[in-house]
Amino acid sequence: MYGPRGAMLGSGGVSDGYEVGSKRQRMMESNPYFAVSSGTGSLPYGYAGGFQPPPFPVVRLRGLPFNCTDIDILKFFAGLTIVDVLLVNKSGRFSGEAFVVFAGAMQVEFALQRDRQNMGRRYVEVFRCKKQDYYNAVAAEINYEGIYDNDYHGSSPPPSRSKRFSDKDQMEYTEILKMRGLPFQVTKSQIVEFFKDFNLIEDRVHIACRPDGKATGEAYVEFVSAEEAKRAMSKDKMTIGSRYVELFPSTPDEARRAESRSRQ
């Protein structure tokens, strides 16, 4: 879920990029490009009188390297103004696909010219897609991560809390878990203490940070085995300090991407 699994940008550069997971919902509600018409509501101001808004400025990428990060996509589209990057995960694993939302329709035309250009040793397909495809991907991420319970505005309600917990049990586990909702001042020793009843590899605790060094409230922890990581899921929703902590199955690739972002 890099859950925050996106970057919010402006003028071709990173701007407070790793809060997009929490900002995306507000962005979709406040930006005319993101306005969703139910068919009965009024159009945004200026779109009346038969004037149609421009196409939603999003493209889809396919064939990305599996160690791809948001930063790699920003560099791939250097010079263009990106609003959102959403890396697509399936069952907790990066699929090699992503959605990129630009500041306007003309930016999309420039982005399409980079179709079949290389990222590392792989060529990347860049193609048009529909606004609903992007919305569906956002909804899938929200449903998988179990957030926005109270203010979810998708076309269908998110799965129930009990179903999501059941889904976690059914997922394929590696030795890595993702923690979310941590106090921003959390220390490695507090995380080690949190998992004191489990066989945690202490030097494999990574607290995720933004490029400016501020903590994101997330961390990745590695156990001696996938079975031990699954057993440690019993700590899901327990507290560190005054905050309850959510746990999710993760992968080495996702942990590496988070670590890479912290080093930028």
From TrEMBL:
<feature type="domain" description="RRM">
    <location>
        <begin position="175"/>
        <end position="252"/>
    </location>
</feature>
<dbReference type="InterPro" id="IPR000504">
    <property type="entry name" value="RRM_dom"/>
</dbReference>
<keyword id="KW-0694">RNA-binding</keyword>
<dbReference type="InterPro" id="IPR050666">
    <property type="entry name" value="ESRP"/>
</dbReference>
<dbReference type="GO" id="GO:0003723">
    <property type="term" value="F:RNA binding"/>
</dbReference>
<keyword id="KW-0677">Repeat</keyword>
<dbReference type="InterPro" id="IPR012677">
    <property type="entry name" value="Nucleotide-bd_a/b_plait_sf"/>
</dbReference>
<protein>
    <recommendedName>
        <fullName>RRM domain-containing protein</fullName>
    </recommendedName>
</protein>
<dbReference type="InterPro" id="IPR035979">
    <property type="entry name" value="RBD_domain_sf"/>
</dbReference>
<dbReference type="Pfam" id="PF00076">
    <property type="entry name" value="RRM_1"/>
</dbReference>
